[in-house]
Specification:
With 428 residues, the chain is α/β, with parallel strands linked by helices. It has helices at residues 2-17, 30-37, 50-57, 106-116, 135-148, 186-196, 209-240, 244-251, 273-283, 289-315, 344-354, 367-374, 397-400, and strands at residues 20-24, 42-46, 60-61, 66-67, 74-77, 88-91, 124-127, 157-160, 178-183, 202-205, 324-328, 357-361, 387-392, 408-416, 426-427. It folds into 2 domains: 2-207, Rossmann fold (3-Layer(aba) Sandwich), CATH 3.40.50; 222-427, NAD(P)-binding Rossmann-like Domain (Rossmann fold, 3-Layer(aba) Sandwich).
């Protein structure tokens, strides 16, 4: 038995050494995945951004601001020809939305064409990018076939494994989360099991690629709806003259009440995925009602907050046109640097329309990147500045170490969006 086990382990080890995996797209998802896989396989980390490749080659990740030592089995490249060595390709590029809220598949299309240009018989392509049901098979599969002149499920195979990485969350890591996998054939699924099983503790095998695609969308849609409900609770309480924070705290005393808090809903997933789901459903002549209303409520939050802050200013005896407002938090959520789809710039714009003089401060983000993304540069530091209204939008740990009372004029307002500051003068 020992001889058999030793033989199997040796064979499996050799199979790993003979496998070269290419990870296409080295953002928040692809970079940590490539690093993890390189502990077990030869890995090519590919990105079209030369600066991104240069930074990673030098052991620096601008997304996390961390320095690291790349494994010897990990090679970074932005050259398509380097990908020829790979037998499995994992595509982890962004899938944003257009201004009209429809799916923007340009990155997915480009990545599929890059892979299709080097695809060989027997290769496998796995998509981690968020897509709607049937997109992987019918859209991406067709792009691969057209570019490579190969036939799906005869010459090459596809799979889908939705990313579940949560930026800023050190508890739910790539290794610890349950990874959904699905493939176009049973044999392809086994390849995915071997590869992903080497870097995660738990796998869930979905019965089809389309089930896995749908599961990803409803995971984030559910969270979007939960937040939408408490956001509407905040709006209702405001109209009734009640404290939403007090109402939610009282409701939390029941064992099965879900403890969501009101807030601005941004990020690359929660504020985007419901639109992907709505898109494919409308293609099937079905308009989702609950999903759409949840999105509508969350999209209205910056408008509601701007109006609320205008009312607070008047209650404090402030002249809006002379009032200085500080918004704390530009990342889309607490304790992360990711600014994608942040709603803070929208709130800033609406406050400026009221006449407020608005500054934004977030010590976790890249100020130059913020300038490029939003057209304004956040404060480098608070210094000795004083404001009339300070608004806590993100519950960064670093903000808890700052006594905001030092930066607000006496008797003026500290508005705590998250209900965590004991000295706040105003809450929802």
């Amino acid at each position: 038995m020992k001889c058999v086990m030793a033989w199997w382990c040796k064979l499996n080890h050799k199979a790993r050494l003979d496998t070269t995996i290419a990870v296409i797209g080295l953002g928040y998802v692809g970079a940590p995945l490539a690093f993890a896989l390189a502990k077990h396989f030869r890995v090519i980390g590919f990105d079209t951004n030369p600066k991104r490749i240069q930074d990673l080659q030098h052991g620096f990740d601008e997304h996390t601001q961390e320095h690291f030592v790349p494994p010897k089995s990990l090679h970074y490249s932005n050259t398509q020809q380097d990908l020829i060595q790979a037998t499995m390709f994992i595509i982890a590029v962004p899938t944003p939305i257009f201004a009209d809220k429809t799916p923007d598949l340009r990155y997915l299309d480009e990545a599929s064409k890059i892979v299709g240009g080097v695809l060989k018989k027997g290769d496998m392509v796995v998509y981690e990018s968020t897509t709607y049901p049937f997109c992987t098979r019918e859209y991406c599969g067709k792009v691969l076939q057209k570019t490579s002149s190969l036939v799906l499920d005869r010459d090459f195979f596809i799979g889908y494994s939705p990313e579940r990485i949560n930026p800023g969350d050190n508890a739910h890591t790539l290794q610890s989360i349950t990874k959904i996998i699905a493939a176009s054939t049973p044999q392809a699924r086994q390849r995915m099991e071997r590869v992903y099983g080497s870097v995660v503790d738990s796998l869930y095998v979905a019965p089809s690629i389309e089930v896995a695609e749908m599961a990803k969308l409803i995971e984030n849609a559910q969270r979007d709806l939960n937040i939408a409900f408490v956001n509407e609770v905040a709006m209702m309480c405001d109209r009734l003259g009640l404290s939403a924070n007090a109402v939610l705290e009282a409701a939390k005393s029941k064992w099965n009440f879900l403890p969501f808090m009101p807030g601005l809903v941004g990020g690359h997933c929660i504020s985007v995925d419901p639109y992907y789901l709505s898109y494919i459903l409308q293609m099937c002549d079905y308009k989702p009602k609950v999903l759409s209303m949840g999105r509508l409520v969350n999209e209205q939050m910056p408008t509601f907050l701007a109006k609320k802050l205008s009312s607070i200013a008047k209650d404090c005896g402030l002249v809006v046109s002379k009032s200085k407002v500080l918004l704390l938090g530009l990342a889309f959520k607490e304790n992360c640097r990711d600014m994608r789809n942040s709603k803070t710039p929208i709130l800033r714009k609406k406050l400026k329309k009221y006449g407020f003089k608005v500054k934004v401060y977030d010590p976790l983000i890249d100020r130059a990147q913020a300038k490029q993304m939003f057209g304004f540069k956040p404060l480098k530091s608070l210094g000795y500045k004083k404001f009339d209204i300070i608004v806590l939008l993100n519950a960064h740990d670093v903000f808890m170490d700052i006594d905001l009372r030092e930066y607000v004029h006496t008797k003026h307002s500290i508005f705590d969006m998250k209900g965590i500051l004991p000295y706040a003068t105003h809450r929802l």
